[in-house]
Write a structure and sequence with these properties.
By secondary structure, the protein is mainly beta. It contains 1 helix and 28 strands. The strands form 2 sheets. It has an 18-stranded mixed β-sheet that branches. Strands 3-6-9-12-15-18-20-22-24-27 form a 10-stranded parallel β-sheet, with no helix packed on it. A hairpin with a 2-residue loop joins strand 25 and strand 26. The chain is globular, with a radius of gyration of 20 Å. The relative contact order is 0.09.
């Protein structure tokens, strides 16, 4: 798309392919039709996203990015906005993406509302991924994905820009694999700050409902998570990596619950700049859990990596189970020796 263009997808229309804008302003992708990624072929040689692990390319440069996308044969997904400003995605349905469904990378002032992601079954078919973007609003979306549903990433190659002023509100989230709402795991930026997750229904979880996973150098701070409703089912089964098609699923008959709140600092398998980050000044307020009466309360966990590289000044104020506010001792919370000044009310 070009500057100032609007793509309108009429209800009932199906667009097979993807929609991309690179270094554009005032682009709109709106309507009630479907952007269908089912015809994009994914192989072991096609990268999921544009990133530069060597740190030698600045993907914010248009010519560099276009060359990278072409030479690496990067998958296109359903919606891609690269280094765009003042753009809107509203109402559209994205279906069966070969990789992350929607990526907003190095973008500013993006409004994404009433979007839907469905039919996501391929591994890494995330919902909405923000790379090193700021002043982004994600509101009133329905997201069912086979990986993280809304995730704030910072990717090598885009990492000169921070992640800040991001609001995720009024969304309904069904996560079939990984995390419902997440920071990370790639956090190649100096800072994440002024982040709000509010008034969302997480109607199905997988590994974690709410996670900050700081795998690179970022200082994540000044973040508020409030009025989040999480649903657990007694019929949930544990997620398991399948080694081959002949391997039987080993999880039948085993009970399973996703973790509720996690803050995890690491230099892990998806880390890129291998500099430990930290998390400070985060508040979780009014977190509601619905589960069967005989089920255990979902656990929460804080895992620091080293002194000065943990979670500090974190507050959990109000956790409710089936409508009843829990006392602090009734909230299962593990923390490491590197996590300090943690308040549970």
């Amino acid at each position: 798309l070009r500057d100032g263009e609007t793509l309108f997808l009429e209800g009932g229309a199906v667009l097979y392919g993807s929609v991309t804008a690179i270094h554009k302003k005032n682009v709109r992708i709106v309507g009630y039709g479907v952007i269908d990624g089912s015809r994009e072929v994914r192989t072991d040689e096609t990268p999921l996203l544009p990133w530069n692990l060597e740190g030698t390319e600045d993907l914010r440069d248009e010519a560099t990015l276009r060359r990278h996308l072409s030479e690496k044969r990067v998958l296109k997904g359903c919606v891609r906005l690269y280094s765009c400003e003042n753009c809107q995605v509203a109402g559209v349905i994205t279906r069966d993406s070969a990789t992350f469904s929607m990526i907003f990378a190095d973008c500013a002032r993006i409004d994404c509302e009433w979007a839907k992601t469905i039919g996501m079954w391929r591994y890494n078919s995330d919902g909405i991924d923000l790379f090193n973007s700021h002043h982004v609003r994600v509101a009133n979306c329905f997201l069912r994905d086979f990986d993280d549903c809304v995730v704030l990433k910072a990717i090598m190659g885009w990492d000169a820009a921070n992640v800040h002023h991001v609001t995720v509100t009024g969304c309904t989230v069904w996560c079939d694999w990984a995390r419902c709402l997440e920071v990370g795991e790639e956090t190649c930026a100096d800072e994440y700050y002024d982040i709000l997750w509010e008034d969302c229904d997480l109607i199905h979880g997988s590994f974690m409902f709410l996670e900050i996973r700081d795998g690179d150098r970022a200082w994540v701070h000044d973040m508020l998570v409030r009025n989040i409703r999480c649903e657990c089912s007694p019929y949930d089964l544990p997620p398991v990596f399948q080694s081959d098609m002949a391997t039987p699923y080993p999880g039948f008959g085993k009970s399973y619950q996703p973790e509720l709140i996690v803050s995890h600092i690491q230099d892990g398998p998806w880390s890129n700049d291998h500099i430990l980050g930290k998390v400070t000044d985060v508040r979780f307020e009014n977190i509601f859990v619905s589960c069967s009466a005989d089920a255990p309360m979902p656990r929460s966990r804080l895992t620091g990596a080293a002194e000065g590289h943990g979670t500090s000044r974190l507050t959990i104020d109000g956790v409710f189970r089936n409508g009843t506010r829990l006392r602090p001792r009734e909230i299962p919370l593990e923390k490491s020796e590197f996590d300090h000044d943690i308040q549970v009310k």
